[in-house]
Amino acid sequence: MIELLWLVPTIPVIGFLILTFSCGKLPQVPAAIIGAGSIGLSFLVAVLAGMDFMAMSEAGTTSFSQTLWTWMEVGSFKAGFTLYLDGVSLVMMFIITGIGFLIHVYATGYMNDDPSFARFFAYMNLFVAAMLILVLADNLLLLFMGWEGVGLCSYLLIGFWFKDPYNGYCARKAFVVTRVGDASMALGLFLLFASLGTLNIQELMVLAEEQWVVGSGIAIAVTLLLLGGAVGKSAQLPLQTWLPDAMAGPTPISALIHAATMVTAGVYLIARTHVLYELAPSVQYLVGVIGMITLLMAGFTALVQNDIKKVLAFSTVSQIGYMFLALGVGAYSSAIFHLMTHAFFKALLFLTAGSIILAMHHEQDIFKMGGLRKDLPWSHALFLIGTIALVAIFPTSGFFSKEEILASALTNEHGGYLLWLGGVAGAFMTGLYSFRLYFLVFFGKKTHDGHEVMGWHLQGPLVVLAVLALVGGFIHIPVEEVFQAHAEEHHISLFYQAIMIGLPLFGALCAYLIFVKKKINVEKFAGSGVGAKLHRFFYTQWGMDWLYDRVIVFPYVGLAKLNKKDFVDSIYNGTASLVRHIHNRVTETQTGQIRWYTMTMALGVLLVISIGVFA
Amino acid sequence: MILVWLMLILFVGGIAAWLSESRGSHIPRVIALFAILLDLALVVLMLVAPGVLGLADVGTEISHGHGEWLVLFQADWIPRFGISFIFGADGLSLLLIFLTVFLGMISLGAAWHEIKERSGFFYFNLLWTLAGVIGVFTALDLFLFFFFWEVMLIPMYFIIAIWGHENKEYAAMKFFIFTQVSGLLMLLSILVLVFLNYQATDLLSFSYFDLLGNGLSGEIGMLVMLGFFVAFATKLPTFPFHNWLPDAHSQAPTAGSVILAGILLKTGAYGLIRFTVPLFPDPSELFAPFAMGLGAFSILYTAKVAFAQTDIKRLIAYTSVSHMGFVLLGVYAWNAQALQGAVMTMLAHGFSAAALFMLAGGLQHRIHTRDMDKMGGFWGVAPKMSFMLLFFTVAAVGMPGLGNFIGEFLVLLGSFQASVTATAFAALGLVVAAVYSLIVIQKVLHGENENNYVFEDLTFIEMSCFSLMMIGLLWMGLYPQTMLDMAEPTLRSLGIAFP
Question: Looking at residue A489, what is its pLDDT?
């Protein structure tokens, strides 16, 4: 059945085509069946192919590739539409189609009665197809196609409700900021091709190990350029500013694209090309440092947001920071593991947040919620499960993956106390901001009534995700082969263990004391001089948007406006009017008076004679 | 002879259309359609089944040792001055001829309902422009080439000046002067080249084959080369010779814009590939770093100007200049990937720009404005049109899977090996392309329809035209090998190594 691999990305493409070319004439029910059904079918095929693959890998074959056709062959450059399946892409394929299917089903309920229902699912299907191409590509060019494709769908879906210009602004910002990373990544591809003569990922890894010296300039340049692409797509420093704005899209989009799948593409890219990063240890360390700083920074920012989706968005940025931290210390399988568990609990949190938003009639401000645990029992239970998994409380899925990352940061040769400390500080922050969100929404005084919107397509997927968030930590991901068995046992002392288990709980406790018991008055602090400044500083993502606006956006827009008429044009028009001016002056000499002509002639003769005499 | 037939059909069809005007204003367009379809059929035959036309034999018979000519036609014209009729087509020419005739058909679709006055004379000009372009793509005698260079200019001037919009005389005159002055430089260069070649070899000939390998170098070689370069760079166009284009495009009728953007610009690129570099290899090599820098600068500069425009046609016109910067970059990188990329960009941009101008023209026809600040929320009014605008904008942004990406990617991949700096700047073009393109989507499709425009969605003719171009871009994006294989022998014969 593994020969059917090509169907996995193809079925969503067919779904996209049907939904698009029905031109909005398709009624809602068939559109929902095609939209969600195509992903479900794709998931089934993925499972069949995956089972075959597992059987094969037990027999010793660790990868499978399938060439559909040669994309292009120009001189020595060759790239094919070739799919490549190994442990990592298998895990990614399951996450994309499986979680994707659940979110599609949820969306059939969430988007009920939207006038552009079919268009929504068309974009969603296209997204899934592009994401599958990204993770199944055997060469970096095909990967880049998926990479750009998911970016396009992200743009289209953030701006899906197009009547509000703010949504359009957010969509454009997301596309342009990630494109900065994409341009860097493209240059990385050019450099790789110029250096090694191919873009096939497996060949690249072999050739790089053969030809490059550890720490050489070329290795550093290539990995830095690829890292540029990764931080753009995965919303890490310094290109993280787009993700919070991306929350303008419908909530299922935030769950699918901006939590579970697309934003982890950067993690996938680095894991996929980890051989290159090992040849550039300084860059690999930089990956870890970027992850650490981002996870802390986003943690602080999440703490002061008041939009339920933005808290979750910053928490996503923060959790991807953990994945980068893991990549930086060489714990690739932990990174992929956290990617998977994060997909479970963050999709759950986003979708539950969507249900809350529906119940509150599209209110997203957490300070206008409160005391909702009675009104919304379903959402309450599900959100709590998501929160404890996010905070990494034993024995939820988040605990296992985060613990692995922190242990690796402590014990791996690339790690160290700095990265570990950053990680555990972040774990405390996670406890604090997650439970702040939870308590503010479900505890305290009730200000508005909520009405739970019920339906099997809303609650069904959530229950599945909740189960995965709880027990997903026990899933074994078959990636040792790909990362050459980096999965050694970590032996760390009980003291460190206790810190890693205790700190998130301590964070949760602090949140309880502050936001439920009101033992510490944060509002007063946030209102005072220093506190207000600090609050503002955190709230605005440490002023990075402000900085980018002033350094890049405003000057560019200003210069463009200034030169709207294109100054080159004035040179040509200036020449034209100069010629016309001279023409007019010369015409004036044509007076028709003999006197004038005789005089100018005489003067001319005089001039010529004097030149002849004196020169 | 088949190449001559292609032009004759258009020339005669043009005259017939003009004469038929007195018998009813609908007759010229039917005649034009027949002429173009006949040409299209011939071109498709040449591409798919050259044997039917007896071409394979002819090609092998008259192989000049200078290239893999599929068709070659030679006859005396003015033997005293070494001027003759030499028409030849190889893979590259055939691709461009196909583009010409295909977009000619599309432009006919654009004009079908738009042109009501003096339609006979309009279709005469349209067909003669197309014939001129085919001449440019096939002429292999430099005098003949220059002749066709002029033939395609004058009917285009009339199209803008007569059927254009509010500021048409200014735009037409500007178009004419830019092309004419730069064309004059080329004529001078041709004459000097032929004369110097005559002095060196005692052979007075304007034939491309005789002039190849003239070995001009030094200052004089550079000057003569620059004469060609300026003419082609103006047509391409590139900074700082681009200023005729925004005016010509914003004033031309839709069909004129389609032909300008889709076809006429490509004659500049073709000239660079076929004449400038092969005729003057040494000066070109010296000039290459400068030209690549100019290409990269042109990409970024015009993208910034495009971003500030509110007139949708002016905006698209500036983006055309920006995309042609990639062609300039690719041509002067002069290696397999870069040149194939330049050719792909020419073809793909021909489709995407033609479609975008047709959409802008369609909008102007419906709501009588090109000002994007007055538009908005058109998704709700005309979903089909909106989808097409989205599709072709996305293509222009360089989305993988569509033709434009293949072109730009290959150009950058190749130019990276020639100049890292120029490529790094050009790659920023990917970012700024997103900036200006998404503004169009925002202003036209998104937001509220504040002026409450209500208009008809795409007609059947328009829908067919866009669908055809869409299929073309998908083909180029997913299986570009069809085009790459056709262009490869040409590039090989120009001395490009294909390992």
Answer: 61
Secondary structure of residue B449 in the 3-state scheme: coil
Task: Tell me the residues of chain A between 70 and 109 that have a Cβ less than 8 Å away from chain B.
Answer: 70-77
**Mutation site, B391, B442, B483, B498, interface A, largest A CB count within 10 A:** B442
pLDDT tens profile B297-346: 999 999 989 988 889 999 999 999 999 999 999 999 988 899 999 999 99
Q: What is the pTM of this model?
A: 0.91
- Sequence-distant (6+) residues with CB within 8 A of B247 are B167, B170, B171, B174, B175
User: Counting Cβ atoms within 10 Å, is residue A62 exposed (0-12), middle (13-18) or buried (19+)?
Assistant: middle
Contact A559 B434 (CB under 8 A): no
Contact in structure between A444 and A515 (CB atoms under 8 Å): yes
pLDDT for residue A228: 93
Helices (H), A66-164: 87-94, 100-110, 117-136, 140-158
Considering chain A, what percentage of its residues have pLDDT values greater than 90? 32
> What residue spans define the domains of chain B?
292-499
> pLDDT by residue (tens digit) across B83-117?
888 888 888 888 999 999 999 999 998 888 888 88
Instruction: Using an 8 Å CB-CB cutoff, list chain A residues near B480.
Output: 71-72
What part of B 97-116 touches A (C-beta under 8 Å)? none
Work out the pLDDT band at A364, boundaries 50, 70, 90: confident
In three-state secondary structure terms, B172 is: helix
ipTM of predicted complex = 0.90
Q: Which of A242, A252, A96 is nearest to A182 (CA)?
A: A242
For B301-311, what is each residue's pLDDT tens digit?
999 899 888 89
Q: Which CA distances in Å does B182 have to A563, B140, B227, B264?
A: 25, 20, 8, 15
Report residue A417 as tokens. 């106390």
- The closest of A419, A444, A449, A424 to A511, measured between CA atoms, is A444
